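Why run this: before we spend reagent on co-expression, it is cheaper to look at a predicted model of the complex and decide which construct boundaries make sense. The entries below are exactly what would go into the expression plan.
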Amino acid sequence: MKKVQKAAFYGAVFLLCIIPLFVFLWMFMTGLKTQADNLAIPPKIFFTPTMQNFKSVFDQGHFFKYLGNSAIVALFSVGIALLLGLPASYGIAKYRMRKIGLVLLVARMVPFISYLIPWFIIFRALGLVDTYISLITTHLIITLPFVIWIMVNFFEGVPASLEEAALIDGCSPLQAFVRILIPVVRNGIFTASVLSFIFSWNQFLFSLILSGNRTMTVPVAVFQFISYEEINWGGLAAAATVITVPPLIMTVFVQKYMIKGLTSGAVKG
Amino acid sequence: MRRNEKYWFTLPALTVIGIIVVFPLTYNIYMGLHSWFVAGGASPRWVGLNNYVKIMKDPRFWNSMRVTFLFSIGALVLETLLGTSLALFLNREFRGKNLVKLLFLFPIASTPVAVSLIWGMMYNYDLGIINIAIQALGFEPQLWLASPKMVIPSLIFADAWQWTPLILLIVLASLESLPTDPFESAKVDGAHIFQVIRYITLPMIQPAIIAAAMIRSIDAIKTFDMIYVMTQGGPDIASENLNLYIFQTGFSYFRMGAASSLAIILFTIVLAVNVLLAITRKSGDLS
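The model came back. Tokens follow.
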């Protein structure tokens, strides 16, 4: 009886796991099929996979450029967020400036479009639409509060005695921060960086309005494909696969802290 | 000098947040009191609260409110119930548990534009796998995204695919951190499994469930990517939520003043829902 129960449980878990995977499998399979196979009814489970769709995604000119644009915007918006956010979250944790956390939570509730309208007006007036500056600035609206949000929790977990010892040994507060505290919270920094990279990579609305031919990011590029190639499912699915693989790989590396990262702040409150 | 030390660390970030976050929000409120057709070259014209008066009489606004409400409530209820149940089911030691958790992180991390695109294909009337599958089971094919009646449930279903895992994993993490004593004594007292869940487990994980619901509600009310990619608010305006309506007002019709006041309304709704949820959580009164 016990054995049967166990087998039933594992069977149920297996079926359950198919649900999150199914959409990705379908995406990948559609990308590997020829146009004729994709239009076949009933859909072919067994087919000869072809890399043609993936090849043409990269061949038709600009996809590498779009990948590069996404990477540049994400790297800079994460880098600046760390540079500003690490000291800030340390200060907030150390001096218990809890009200700032509340401001950040409210900032997260503001619809992105409330930020987008003013920034669009300003960037248009300055001629900065379709530049990295406009994209990095707006992505910073997401990454900076998020980095602070996560890192406050990590800094709060560091015992105060550690820093006091460094100060007694003659470190300045800044030295203590850079040499002693930063290495201690490196897991947090890694998690915050990866998650905010993913947020920036997946960002659609800001880039839809503020990017153009020169700075188009991958979600916008894929969205543009949809309007041109409604029927070329293989090509679309291949492009979708290519842009969603990087966040999935990154997830593997931060899985331990990801849920904690996504919920910190809100769970306390 | 020492007294100001705490601001050395926070001031740079706070200045930048002031510029990129607080300033646009203030500007948004200000712009909401103006009328401005941005493509016309004219400057903004002060209209006071007139935008808001007009919005209240605008049937398309009320349609978008209805869509926002139906979509958010549907998604939130479905995802919370499903996520909590699955978390209770998975809350035990078994081999491969970490792998299962990882698989459920994937939808959360995936690019919304990419997965919405695939959902759009799966919902396709002629070639989509969903219609093919239900026809094989003997049902009529459905216009999942093209009929005004089906479009919101279809969008909720796709949203639930992506976001139920978040609730599942938050609740599961909370379950795993619970002390074991109450459960052991309940077992000794001979409590039935459903009694244990109802009277011991649920009250203990309630804060986590509400926290998860808060996080989800913030994003569900503001949903943009998924709806914009799959239906662009259609058919007609049957799936146009408030966020999409603001987007169209601002960036298709270039009426920035009206779009700004609509955005303020959306923000107020998100804020109000979260204050309500926070109060529920503080009072601890769900049961």
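The beta strands of chain B are 34-35, 45-46. Chain B is about 70% helix and 0% strand. Bring this page to Monday's planning discussion.
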